Amino acid sequence: MNVSGLSFSARELRDLGLAWAALGIAFAIFFAGGGQRAVDAISGGGVVAPVLLSLLTAGTAFLIHELAHKVVAIRYGQIAEFRADYGMLFLAVVSSLAGFIFAAPGAVYHRGRLTRREHGLIALAGPAVNVGLAVLFIPVFVAGTAVDSGFLALVGSRGLVINLFLAAFNMLPFGPLDGKTVLGWSKPVFAGFFIPALALTVGAFLLGFGF
């Protein structure tokens, strides 16, 4: 499949779809309180709305984050493709049932020769797009509040906080996270992005966005 110059194999499309669906279910359970509380809340209020809400927020945040990595990698002449980690997707659902969530659904793998700067920019693309998406969810929240639509307002507030969280979390300089690669390329760029993203995330949580 080819979309605007980007090609996707059947396996990649399947992995993206499965990861999107699994994260939608996991975040719906997590925000409903996990375990029996989630079962009672979702069954009592219907399954469609909570899962749709999570697909539009957490699912979209993840999907566009990974596509940003792919777009920039291809821009630098890489062969790049997303691969889901089925074990981690299972863990995301199980952890949400326990009342917390650990989401590492997979990654974009690329091959080819790159400079340290190019590696850093590919890594930074995902978190940077999440910050951009967080900004785009603000008018959704404002519109939902203005027309007194609880669902639309929640889409806006939850989209805002999830995208800020993903930006800050992925910039942690550990393991396979994007922050380690960015830090290895440029300490000023790392600090200039990570510190504001972390501050905004903490602020959004303290203000109660997304809940």
Automatic annotation (TrEMBL):
Keywords: Hydrolase, Membrane, Protease, Transmembrane, Transmembrane helix. The chain crosses the membrane at residues 16-35, 47-68, 88-109, 121-144, 150-169, 189-209. GO terms for biological process: proteolysis. InterPro entries: Metallopeptidase_M50B (IPR052348). GO terms for molecular function: peptidase activity. This is Zn-dependent protease. It comes from Halobellus salinus.
